[in-house]
Every structure is written in C-alpha cells, then in structure tokens.
Amino acid sequence: MVPLAKQFTNSHLIRTKISLFSAGLNKAANEFWTHPEFAAVYPEYLYQSHSIIRASVPLMEATLHVCQSKRHSTDPVLQRFADYLAHHIVEESGHDEWILNDAEAMGIDRRLILQRIPKNTAKHLVGSQYYWIHHYHPIAMLGYIAVMEGTPPKTEFIEAVARRTRLPLEAFSSFLLHAKVDPRHRADLDTLLDVLPLTEDHHMVIGLSAFETIKYLKTVLLDVNKSHLC
Amino acid sequence: MTNIERLKEAGVVDDDYKFDEDEKDAIESLSHQEVNAIISSKDKLGEDFIKKHVPHGMMF
Question: So where are chain A's domains?
C-alpha cells in the first residue's frame, strides 16, 4: 500500500473513497428521482427501501453484540464503536414504520409491504454485513453506515419532487424526517470516525464494506427504475 | 504500478480524467483488494456523476 502523501482524517478519507466510487449509484439515484413514470416506480422503491431499513436496528444490535463479546472486549476501537451503536440504535428505532406510513399515503396497505418476499438485493446488502461482523470483523459495519447516512436528502429537494410528480407530500414523510435528523447523524458518525485509532487494515475493511454497499444499493435502484415495465 | 494506473488500465478511469490532490491521495491509499473491488464494479469513474451527490434514500 502506497503511503499517503498527506495526513487525512479518518472521516475525510472514508468520505473521499465513497464519493469517488459512487458515480454509478449517483447516476441510478438521479434516474430514479427524475423518472418519467415516478408515480409508478415509487411504490416499488418504498417496498425495497423498507426491506433494507427494517434490518437497520437488528443489524446494529448484532454488531453491538459482537463488539461487546469476550473476543473483542479489550479492543479500544470496538469499544468506542459499541458506545456509538448503543446510542445510535435508539435514534434509528422505528424508522421502518415511517416507510410504511408513506406506503399508506400512496394507498398501499402496509401489510402488503410487510408480507412481500424480499428481493435478493436487499438480502445480499444486509446479509453481507452479517457475514462481515460475525465472521471477519465488525468494524466493516462502519462502511455500511457511512454509505447509508452519507447523502441525506434536503427538505426542498423532496418538496420539489412531490410538486413535480403531483404525489402527496405525506408519501415522502420518511425523507422529510431523515432530512432533519441525518445531517446530525452524519456529523456524529464523522466525529466517531475521527476519534477512532483506525489502522490501515481497518480502513481496508471499511472501504470494502462501503464499496459492496454502494454496489448493492445501485442494483436496488436500477431494479426500481425498471419496475414500471413489469 | 500506482492505483490510478491500475484503474486506468482496467478502463474504469478515463485517461484524461483529472483527479484533485485529495482524490489522488485517497486512491493511492487504497489497498489492492479495494482496487479490485472497484474494478469489479465496472462503474466508470470520471463521468459527470462522480461529484454529484444524489440522495439514494436507502437510509437507516
């Protein structure tokens, strides 16, 4: 590995890596938000988004459990990460319900979202993190969180989408609530990253986990974008 | 071979794309495995969307 020409903070390095390699995800997301048949693809988006977001708290709880296990009890990086998770789990609880509320605002019975079999992409996205944390190193989860909370939506952006698509603003409540809380969550995560004494190996695992997350999210959005054809 | 040279050779970075210094440093800090992961994604870097941060919305 080539030594860095200058010293980065952990958060700056991780954010730069994610930014550099999110071109495909950004393109797919842009195509979603400007989709000519947005009203037809948005229900599929809600379903797929719910498949992923309902796993957030259980995934963080599993990560916390591993961080607190005897195997890692003397690892200062994982103990700081555990402190962050214990706090963040509370903050993220119930966000899957916001998606179900949006579905109902679109006239979709929430039970249909809950009962529908999840797509492989959601299982791959979330399942790969379980593998990382249980069978390799729980620090990988930081890559997942950094991608998931890296581009919070802005209120004006969501309001413009609702106006353009003529869908009720109530169908975007999850985005509007995230627009309020995620900038702080992102700042909290960056603060954590910058106090952790991360090694090059930690950075590699976080990077690989982030790249996987980007790849799977892009696949989800590409799938959503063509769902109106089914 | 530098990481940027590897990415260019794999065709995921255009020869004429200009990275800024932070980006160059970040790319050269990548491990061999991370570069392999990027190459396997087949996403072309240097497109318009590289610096366009679009909310993907798959939030926590």
Answer: 10-30+43-225
Interface test with chain B among A2, A8, A16, A21, by most B beta carbons within 10 Å: A21
* Residue B20 pLDDT: 82
CATH architecture of A10-30+43-225: Up-down Bundle (1.20)
What pTM does this model have?
0.90
State yes or no: pLDDT of A123 exceeds 70.
yes
Q: Is the Cβ of A7 closer than 8 Å to some Cβ of chain B?
A: no
**Nearest CA-CA distance, residue A155 and chain B, Å:** 11
Higher pLDDT, A2 or A110: A110
Phi-psi region of A94 (alpha: psi -120 to 50; beta: other; left: phi over 0): left
Query: Within the 138-177 window of chain A, which residues sit less than 8 Å (CB to CB) from chain B?
Result: 145, 148-149, 151-154, 157, 174-175
Per-residue pLDDT tens over the stretch A155-203: 999 999 999 999 999 999 999 988 888 888 889 999 999 999 999 999 9
Amino acid at B38: I
> Cβ of A182 under 8 Å from any chain B Cβ?
yes
In percent, the amount of chain A with pLDDT more than 70 equals 97
Cα–Cα dist A179/A165, whole Å: 19
Alpha carbon distance A63, A68 (integer Å): 9
